Amino acid sequence: MTEQDISSFKKHLMVWTMLCTTAGLLFWIFKKIMSKREEYLKQEEAAKQKRHANLAIMEEQEKIKTNDEKPSNKSDMQNDTIQYTQYQEFLPDNLWKKFSLTSESRDVQKYDLSFESNPAQVEVLIYYQSFVKLFRIVILTVNNLEKFINNDSNKIRVKVIFRRSNETKYSESSQLYPIAETVPIKENFSVQMDTLDFYGCVLYITVWSIDVFYRELLLGAISIDLNSYNHNLKKNFYGDVLPVKKDTKVYGHLLVSLCHIPSTERLTCVVISGKNFTGDANSASILNKAINPYLDISLLNDGKLIKNHTTSVSKETRDPVFNEMIEFFVPQSQVTLSDILIMVFYKDDKNFNETIGKILIGSHAQEDGYKHWCKTLENPEQSFARWHAIKK
């Protein structure tokens, strides 16, 4: 090759290198511009949702204020009083008074349940070990559960509760067991107590079914009055599970906003604030004290956990303000199978987690939870806020 050819080759190579460098630089600039544009669109969408949420919150608060200013309906108050009185009759404290044992039938506990032809039964063994001052309770079996076997409830749990002078002295739960006609439990529970502690003490054994959402449903309870218990004897009890009315008490309210965006298959949940969080009145850590509540928010698909988010803890308040937004990806084909489960907890004096209650919003929910879900789906890209009652 001549020097002229080499010089021409070098010039072409230099031009080609400059063109490639320029093309690469233009491509990098294009990517930066597109990423900035995407970020801007996301910010605009978030701002739009926030505006919708604020408007919905203002409307909901105005409705609440209007309802609070309305005079109370006397007939409604009377109905509430009647319902509360009926509910009180089925509280565990009152069960043993209504169905207490006669003196000639203390060893085998049988209740007169004419409305139940084949009630579920719990077999219990109780005895007292005086040398270590321990009262032992052995849950042996739970029988006749065939009528409770269905698609919703697939497990059961037994809880042992000691109460004296309207106070819970001991409470413990068994493990979860698959529901069947006869469930062998064979779990031991021990309570440290003196012989004098038996007076005025009542032992309650409650049976709970657990559904696919891990919600507990009280099937019934048996109660054993320990006033007449001879602590020198080992006794077997066969107790019919007495149905107990469901706890309809409200443990506070939570304001929740939902927005569904079908184009991006996104569901935005904003937990805004709560009011009058109460919890279990028998818990010494919550009685007449400020609490430290927080929320656990889960997206469920046909009962299966898809995504979970835990909010920050609100310090020493019963009216917490959360203002936290959680975004869920929900495919359009799965919307009718989805639910949002909000568990409400608080941390007690020893930093233990205690449950206040829960809220279910979605296709499997009832009443307000289902209405809120339907309204959100019927009005895409609009935020709707609603107060939900916290229940057990």
From TrEMBL:
The chain crosses the membrane at residues 12-30. PROSITE patterns: C2 (PS50004). It comes from Hydra vulgaris. Keywords: Membrane, Transmembrane, Transmembrane helix. It comes from the Eukaryota. It holds the Pfam family C2. The lineage of its organism: Eukaryota, Metazoa, Cnidaria, Hydrozoa, Hydroidolina. PANTHER family: SYNAPTOTAGMIN. Gene3D superfamilies: C2 domain (2.60.40.150). This is Synaptotagmin-2. Residues 250-388 form the C2 domain. The gene is LOC101235780. InterPro entries: C2_dom, C2_domain_sf.
